[in-house]
């Protein structure tokens, strides 16, 4: 079964730009947070904050009940997109630079395309779109210098994060078309927060965390989780799951810039060339076969 390619609307373009920035910030924030907090506590804090913000809104709209119809894929989505990746990413950033973590996550579109081919439920990108994906990945290769320096186990953790991030949008596009994005985000965050609560309490910090660590998890919860997840579901509805994952080509650029500015991480000629390739790949992948004409939208929450 094949789906007709989705056009990129003005709303879709705006959501794409927003998510490109918002999901480039967490790498820096996580790096700061894990200096004082354990990875499970970081996950607990950001999911609990996000759930506290979104659950009352979803309940007020009466959108929680319909999730029971798709509870099995919903649980798989929650584990693949949040529960496992956020723990692995937080753990890996204890040893890897924030910019390198962001760059490794840029492999998400490749895994997304491979998943779509395997399940025969992918958007048609065409030759131009596929070329864009390859150009973007070439940019990532340049940025990494074809030689990842650091803890190998941590690198593997981030690759597993990328695989989980590819599975999540695929499930959302296939099973959650008629469900409220607000309810999906709220309940998934609440489930992860409840699951990590006992571990987070057990691994509570022995001393008061720094102001930077506290501020980091608050921003992670409010902006990079609550706001971002609603926006990301809407982005999938507008432009499709495969194109939506291409934001991971721009997220690394934001992660590197923040790492350089805030943490003093190096910026080389290879980084500049990689940026150019990543941006070019993003453009070709997202704009392939598209126009800015209106299209039928999925139901908004």
What is the element layout, followed by pairings?
Blueprint: H1 10-22, H2 26-33, H3 39-60, H4 71-92, H5 98-104, H6 108-119, H7 126-144, H8 152-175, H9 181-202, H10 211-239, H11 241-244, H12 247-263, H13 269-287
Helix pairs in contact: 1-10, 1-12, 2-5, 2-10, 3-4, 3-9, 3-10, 4-8, 4-9, 5-12, 6-8, 7-13, 9-10, 12-13
- Summed up, the domain count is 1
Structural class: mainly alpha
Task: Bin the strand percentage.
Answer: under 5%
List the secondary-structure elements in sequence, H or E: HHHHHHHHHHHHH
- The best one-word shape is globular
Compute the average pLDDT: 82
User: Main β-sheet: number of strands, strand sense, barrel status?
Assistant: none
Q: In terms of quaternary structure, what is this?
A: single chain
Radius of gyration: 18 Å
The proportion of residues forming helix, as a percent range, comes to over 70%
Offer a concise description of the structure.
With 301 residues, this protein is mainly alpha-helical. It contains 13 helices and no strands.
């Amino acid at each position: 079964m094949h789906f007709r390619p989705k056009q990129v609307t003005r709303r879709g373009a705006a959501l794409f730009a927003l998510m490109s920035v918002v999901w480039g910030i967490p790498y820096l924030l996580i790096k700061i947070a894990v200096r004082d907090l354990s990875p499970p506590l970081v996950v607990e804090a950001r999911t609990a904050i996000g759930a506290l913000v979104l659950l009352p809104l979803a309940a007020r709209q009466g959108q929680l009940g319909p999730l029971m119809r798709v509870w099995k894929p919903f649980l798989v989505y929650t584990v693949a997109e949040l529960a496992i990746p956020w723990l692995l990413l937080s753990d890996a950033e204890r040893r890897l630079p924030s910019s390198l973590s962001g760059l490794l996550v840029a492999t998400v579109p490749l895994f997304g395309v491979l998943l779509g081919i395997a399940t025969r439920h992918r958007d048609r990108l065409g030759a131009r779109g596929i070329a864009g994906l390859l150009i973007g990945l070439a940019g990532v290769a340049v940025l990494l210098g074809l030689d990842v320096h650091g803890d190998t186990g941590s690198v593997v953790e981030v690759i597993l994060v990328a695989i989980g991030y590819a599975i999540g949008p695929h499930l959302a596009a296939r099973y959650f078309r008629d469900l409220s994005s607000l309810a999906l985000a709220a309940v998934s965050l609440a489930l992860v927060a409840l699951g990590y609560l006992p571990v987070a309490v057990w691994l509570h910090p022995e001393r008061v965390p720094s102001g930077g660590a506290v501020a980091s998890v608050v921003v992670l919860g409010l902006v990079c989780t609550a706001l971002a997840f609603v926006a990301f579901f809407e982005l999938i509805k507008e432009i499709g799951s495969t194109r939506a994952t291409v934001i991971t080509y721009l997220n690394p650029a934001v992660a590197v810039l923040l790492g350089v500015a805030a943490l003093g991480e190096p910026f080389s000629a290879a980084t500049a060339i990689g940026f150019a390739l990543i941006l070019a790949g993003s453009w070709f992948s997202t704009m392939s076969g598209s126009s800015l004409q209106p299209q039928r939208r999925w139901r908004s929450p």
